[in-house]
Amino acid sequence: MTFCRVIDINRRHFLAGAGAAVLATGAPRLAHATTTGQRLVADEGRTVLTTGRGSVPADTWSYGGSVPGPLLRYRRGERLDVTFENRLQEPSAVHWHGLRPPNGMDGAAPLTQAPVPPGETYRYDFDLDDAGTYWYHTHFRGWNQQDRGLYGVIIVDEESPPAVDRDLLLVLDDWVLTRRGTLSTDFGDMHEWAHAGRLGNLATINNAADADVPVTAGERIRLRLVNVANAQIFALMFDGHDPVVIAEDGNPVTPWALGEKELLLGPGQRADLIVDAVGAPSSRHTIRAYTLRDEVNMGAFVYADREGGSGLAGTDIAPLETNARPSLNRAGARRLELRMEGGAMGGMGRAMMGGRMMGMRELMRNRRIWAFNGVAGDMDAPLATLKRGETVIVDIINDTAFPHAMHLHGMHFREIARNGAPIEDGAWRDTSLMASDDRVEIAFVAETPGRWMLHCHMIEHQAGGMMTFLEIEGDAA
Ligand code: C2O
Ligand code: CU
């Protein structure tokens, strides 16, 4: 695997500069309440961030008055039925990242629906066929709205979930705080857009820097990790523990032990882990991460002073129930190429915008500095029009100086090759992390009619031109 090259990029380009302060411990909110969330209200508000030096009331935007928004939890086969109400001062829409709804429910405004104006509502209503860990977030002006906190987590439980003592949710984000400790609102900085995106100076788990994750010796935990950051990549290490990965991007994988590897999570990606609490009572074990900026202590497993657990720890870990997936017809697949260009140090001289060729300066003035196949984010024509049921292979070439996290809406894909090396049995994913100069082939079946976005999930890159869509023929619901 070449993923470690992402970390090389970190060290080469981003290690300089002061790190986030990670001094004292914070109390994370390991929220695990069940909410059916019939109404999801977006509004302005406040969120307390624990910085290690104290608490900061940050001016955030949120769903349901909290960041993350309410945990939406269902069982496979249930129906998501959420009425979104927009109480913001600007339009918005909700995207259900990793779920496979009909096109009109995808929330990718303005491609699949008109953005919901302030004061209005939109009803999202579709069946949940896939179990796993997913999330929802704004899909309109995300470089502003998502960074202010408009996101939440969706859990769809398996019919028979694995036996664990506890199911914990860790939401990873990073924030840009000003020197006075408030949330910086200098969104839209073109320098950031042309580089790695808006990287925070405070990395948090459940809103706390260096968060305490309380555990009891002897218990088995299912840990669900969700990277909701705008642009940040986390390469996580769990000192003193050997987590086993059971799902990536919500999709079950053949369980594999992390061992000495770092768990890489690009923006939008998720992982489900089984962690056996093998530490001693009263011990403390750091959860560290390399990011695109520095090395941080994200938190720690903080052990209670007694033992517990039900004896599950140490027993075999069975694979999760599978989600139904179409079979890929690789021999007859349609092949597409997608070349990513632009950004700082990328050497892009010009690209199409608004149907016209523009030089870099004019593109910059229009806030477009990235391109796919020479087109800087125009959404008037699809990358390709696909027949329903056909297998498609997209050869994605990262011809830029930065890593990217490529996300496909509406379908899950398999990574089938990376830099020429075939990947046997790659996991089904919805977001693929690519290092600078990586070349990744993804394969999927064109399942559902409509227009499905394919974009970088570093939101500033998306807004800056790294977006396109695939059109699947047929009647889109
Ligand atoms: Cu998670 Cu197009 O988004
Ligand atoms: Cu990107």
Question: Your description of this structure?
Answer:
This protein is mainly beta and 477 residues long. Helices cover 6% and strands 43% of the residues. Strands 20, 23, 25, 27, 28, 29 and 31 form a 7-stranded mixed β-sheet that branches. A 6-stranded mixed β-sheet has the order 10-9-12-17-14-15, with no helix packed on it. Strand 18 (284-290) and strand 19 (295-307) form a beta hairpin. The chain is globular and about 70 Å long. Mean pLDDT is 91; it is low at 1-35. The structure holds CU-O-CU linkage and copper (II) ion. Residues 404, 456, 458, 461, 466 line the site of copper (II) ion (CU).
Summed up:
The chain has 477 residues and is mostly beta strands.
Q: What descriptors fit this protein?
A:
single chain; 477 residues; mainly beta; seven-stranded mixed β-sheet; 33 strands; 43% strand; globular; binds CU-O-CU linkage; binds copper (II) ion
